[in-house]
Amino acid sequence: MKTLKGNILTPQGFVAGAMSFADNGRIERIEGTPISNDRARDSKDPLLLPGFIDLHVHGGGGHDIMEGGEASARVAALHASHGTTSLLATTMTAPMSDLEIAFAGLKPVCAGRPKNAARVLGVHLEGPYINGGKLGAQPNFARPFNSDELKRLNDMAPIRLITVAPEVPGNMEAVESLVAAGYRVQIGHTLGSYEDGMEALSRGARGFTHLFNAMTALHHREPGMVGAALAHATYSEIIPDLLHAHPGAIRVALRSIPCLYCVTDSTAAAGMPDGQYKLGRHNVTKCLGGVRLADGTLAGSTLTMDQALRNLVNELGLDLPDASRRVSTYAADYLGATDRGRLAHGAWGDVVVLDRDLQLTDVYVEGAPLELAHAG
Fold first, then answer.
1. Residue 348: inside a domain, yes or no?
2. Any idea which residues are catalytic in this one (predicted)?
3. Do both 158 and 25 map to the same domain?
4. Which positions are catalytic?
């Protein structure tokens, strides 16, 4: 039985004590004395937080999910080295032939966790059911919802989350059937109005893809899709790299959306030096801390979830338990994975160990320690 000691962030707050894993990788015991957030952070003892959960990952370590083959395993290993213990592999808008290559590579990774890597919980299908007028960095292969296409892909690897533009003909009607079939549906890459957002939410859509980016903006007479999110959403993704959204905009979202959670929208350039990389069919350039197309459009990020946590605490002023929920718990809850994203009896032993400066020192996935050779 593996036992970890330190300041453990439980759902009720920090305790100074010990946590043990059972042989099946789940948390068997947590014992300790409650302590304040400030005391936990000021102590020289390690901080034990729930492992990070990222529901929007395109790549990392020089590999892109759309490559297929072993790329997704390499991506999951890179992000595990930065504390992400489970993730959704995210595909690009692409022809069916490209998607099939990606899904063929994802099938074994979703069926069993790769060595020294995060658990891949399934696929986030970010497109192709989006609006061609709000592609952002998505290649121009947007098309209306196609149930046969979706079934064919899902038979290859499990789709857990689907981004749709509800104003595209046929997509609004698809939302209800997708939700009934067990998919999480969220709104993104959209030219839809506030009213379109309201209708999609009423039909069962629950979240928004990278809030503020690639959607109609808030205006006081035309609230747009951003207005629908801020006024009515319980859940939404946001990319806290401080490039995709100004810190002030993130603060607005924090005040408006109770379970706002962080994603990286990371690309192959994450964890890599400046240079040229692939994002689906696009060539992208990493420089000046970001990733862009040739015309300057932001094209995903280089963010990792450990840096997302530090940004929330150090740049946005969140206390550590709140920040932890936004990189772990809320994403798990949104996906319905309530045995992840929290340190509690019976939950998976997904743990990040941090020092007082929130630098990562150890990672455990389902009770197993990882080698952090990729960290940096």
1. no
2. 265 (proton donor/acceptor)
3. no
4. 265
